[in-house]
Structures
1.
Amino acid sequence: MFEDDVDAKDRQLAVAVTDLVKTYPGSDVCALSGISLSVEKGEIFGLIGPNGAGKTTLIGCLLGLLRPDSGSIKIFGKPADSLSVRQITGYVPERSDFEYWMTARQFLQYHHGLARREPKDREREITEALDAVELSKSVWNRRLKTYSRGMLQRLNIAQMLIGKPRLALLDEPTLGLDPIGVTLVRNLVKKMQEDGMTAIVNSHQLDEVERVCDRVAFIKQGRIASVENLHSGAVSDYFLLVRWPECQLNGSLNSVVAQAAGEAKASVDECHHQWGRFSVQSNQMAVQLIRRLVEHGLPVEEAVPERAKLEELFASESKAGGRQ
Amino acid sequence: MNSTIIRFTAMSACLDPMKLLYVILLGFVMPIGMKVASMLHGASDSQTFEMLTGKVGVAFVLMVLCLGLAGNTATQSGRGGEYLPLIFTRPLTRCEYVLSKWMTITLIGGGFAALQNLIIAAIGLHFGESITAQALFSMLIERFMDAALISAAMILTMLNRNPAFQIFAVLSFYIWLAGQTIPPVSVSTGGKALEDLSIETTKFMLGMSQYIADFILPTVNVYDLVSNPASAAGALIAYLAALAVYLVFAIEVTNKREFFYGTN
């Protein structure tokens, strides 16, 4: 009965990881030291953390390619290494290798077959995947040995798409891509989410993680240091720098600013004669704040969002406790 | 068996023109030339010819065309640069992978060697040699059986990361190969220490090679098996046992191994 309940609960989640411990043979350092996390269906979940924190190891365990020492992993309620899970999982490796004698089409034919897709849909699905990653048609039948790093990375993403996964694991998906490629990946991930897919993104590109992910876990020394909600939590807060000219409020500036901020539910970080720095939790709150400031007599000239808090989180979590 | 693995392994083996050139030269041009020459001059076939048209020939084809394919860059010699982890994220069992590879490599090695044997038999017939259909059939089956055993051993060696095993396997193969190429030694040089030592070493090598041939790469004489099954039953059992052991171990080590990037 309990097992049934657990399974039913697990099935609501795309990924359920419980107390995962992994040590590599011959190493006395735990790559993962009791990680637990859950990812809901349709969610885009980010993994961030310093090099060697265990992010890629976690992805290896989620793929069923690495065997944890203890703990459990359920993907849509099933063990990670079951074939039915692999049928609905796509993976973009960070350091993929290719058979360079193949063409892009052959490479995708290979993965289409391995993913056990219907042969009758093969050519159509290959064309769709190559179009999705915007790989120029002129190179589709060229051998991969002539491809640039960026082209190979696009193909790498196309092989993930070819299996029509419900869960995508993307390990540094923007590696080697130019800014257009980075934007492409961002749009692809958003499109995947619109299509109901779940994705776990491991990346050092914090601004990209912040743009595409719903939640993010900071992993450090094999543990989850924190999980932040990028839409409604502290990390989605950002600073808004608001400038105004010298005005007649000098005597009561601080109290007026504080009152306007309070009405907008924002908080004042700094307040000076000609500018103020506010912490806001959403764009709507920022608009409300500016409106209140104007209503209270501050002639606002400029409002500029400041750097993302995810970057700050990364910096502070990396410093906290130092290296073990 | 996985048809995608079979198809792309075969393509991978046959799309390298340099490898194919080596196979054509040593697998076809040389032995066919030797056969024609011996037929024209009425000479018996040389040991080199026997070697190139027998089990060594099969091993040669497999080493040139398929050694890399047996493991498919599975050795994880460095950080990154591996191909198998991505393959194993697909809905494919390790058993399916190993057996598909084995089947393809067997068909490639056996196919090339059988074709070569067939051409040589045709040349022999053309020059008046007599060969029965049973002998020809047995010869062709033997090439596929050789290929099946050697490819299973190759796959096991390439997928098993244990360095001691790999050294043992490669050393055994080269001792076996040396034993096939060294002529029998039966003379004594009469007390010259260094030459005696050399001959003793060669005898030892030949002895070792014979053990390897018997236990690690046993041969079945299909013609004998067909004409007198009782006489070749032992060889057949040894062959099947070796083949089963290689395949079961290959599947087992592949199942147990963690294939992932940078796990070394």
2.
Amino acid sequence: MTAPVFEASCRSILPDGSMLTITATRRPRAGRADVKCSVPGGPAQAERMQQVVRLARHTEPRYDSRDQVVLSADRALDAATRDWELAAVLADRIVRGVFQAARPVLANGWSDAWHLGRIDGRALVNVPDGVLAGGPDALPHLGALTGQPDPVAATASARAWFPLHSGGDHDDLGWVEVSVRPLANALGGDDDDAISVPDLDALRQGQVRAVLAGARHFDGRGQGQWKTTVRFGETGFSGDSYGLALVMADRIARGREFMARGRVIATGTSSAWHAGKVETVDALAPKCALILREAASGDRILLPKAWEHALPQGMREALRARGASLACVERIGII
Amino acid sequence: MLGSLFRNPLRRPPRQDAFDATLLGSVAIALPAPSGITIPAPCAAVLVDRGGRSRRLASGSRIAALDGETAWCVHPGPYTCDLVPFAGAPEIGLRVSFAVDASDPRATHQRFDLFLASEAGSAVDLAGFGGLAQTALQRELAQGNLELPPCTTLEEWNTFRSGFNQLMYTRFGVTVDDCVPVDLAATHDYAALLEARLAAQAVLATVGASADPAAALTAMPAEAFVPACEDARALRRLFLELPCLMCAVRMAVLPADQGRFRQHQELLRRLDLVSLSVGTMPALELAAPGQPLAPEEQLRRARHSRRAAAALDEAWALLARMKVAGEGPLDVLFDEADRVVANLELETGARRVTQMQDEVTA
């Protein structure tokens, strides 16, 4: 598994523009409280922080009473701001290894329902790049960090990640999010109008619709049943290797696929989604290197079947050691 | 006079629903059986005394319960039920067919009998049992102890099956004969489910707007949590199951060397202390002899009992993992065991105290 962490920090932008750092440390509990918080000059805020962290822990499946987590803020917080709440929750999760962040986290968000994992909004108006922003339009709940749908919301949305390869240092994982909500009076037949892809141009919108229509045809369900919105984290890409990730996100959002504990990272395309076939894509080596770099515990990696014998040596073992799993698939669906 | 009083059906103690053997094997797995009946053909009878000790009677014999014994009539099955492995994916399920294990001559107690004694209040119906099995499965999947990822390969499926079979056997004492993925869209329509959620949210929003707290309470179905019942049920489970669990943990691991032996022994010693603590647990409603405890503290105590029972569930699941694991992952499993026992110690300790002192900066 992953190496234990004993200290982590998470930052947040305060309303006056200054940077707040919340530092979390972990030590044996020894009969003390499970969470201890300190905020300079603000016992009430410290109490709120403890409450927030404890409530957010209710959404975790695994409870460990052996550790005490100590959280401290590096500057005073006034009672009106609550945007640091998400940073406190994430610092608590990172230090216990519940959430693995690839890079330092800067997060803003508040919630009235942390026990459900929901993030209600953020006070930050202009969100700079790289800030993890909470709220219905960005990160609506804690499970969305790994792409899982919110178990209580009436809109199901799921994310899947795919490698964006541009042949340089800017290779990264991009995500695609599919949100579905039931279409009140099903019209039947033509499903296309109910799929909107606001981020892309008309041509690629057509591609996305064709992929989803094909995959849903294969499924035998979901035609004329859903109002669908597809969003991309990064729109400046070309190619169609996002197809498999899109299909997986759609299937997870519609509740028709088993789930991974972490993210689903997929690459693959198809000329026949209506038959559920997965076909190969280019750039095996750089994509595998990227996936190997980014994969975290619990992630599920799906690659085309044709890659199976050409995978870099030791990739499976390296992924397994990290707690991620890999499968080379020929078709989507159950086994 | 007295005779007529007894004959009056209204005065009779409320009997549990009459024994109906035709339900067995289809919708009911076990039914409480009155003393004196002859056990019908494929069934067996399980008799449990007040201390939780159980014995079995084969079919054809007459149930003769001793004083204080409760009898159940158990149909071995096979049964079929659908489980939803992920709460967030209701349209994909597992169709599981299982049977109640015939009594295993090697074991000193049968796991299914223990299940009857500690968890079954009266009858065990198939739907309720399926619910328990589904909860156990969902928790193992959420914790990552069993894996059922998207596009499961055959190899991963086989690993899952062996873990799942062992979980069901260790936790409930039933053997899984068959388990296949199924499409549940016909019965669990996700779109309809989401629409129902939307409607519920709309109701809540209108109630919230009217700003009447009483109306909001009636609109939200509150989870019934009666401290006395919950506490008694959880403590009974801990009291009956912990000794059996300890026994099974002792058998499950054969320590390879001195270090492992110490670790194993230490684990058993701590479990023993938890068991002792449960056996000597103070009454829920008393702070001291003759001194009642405040209701909110009783509620807190009951919550701790329930969480201890949840840790007990995890311990059974962990025992199942120990049984399927080889020598390799024992370090991980012992660390998990340490966590589970620490949780049990914490919850039972918190159940004992009369007042929780809790400081932000403790």
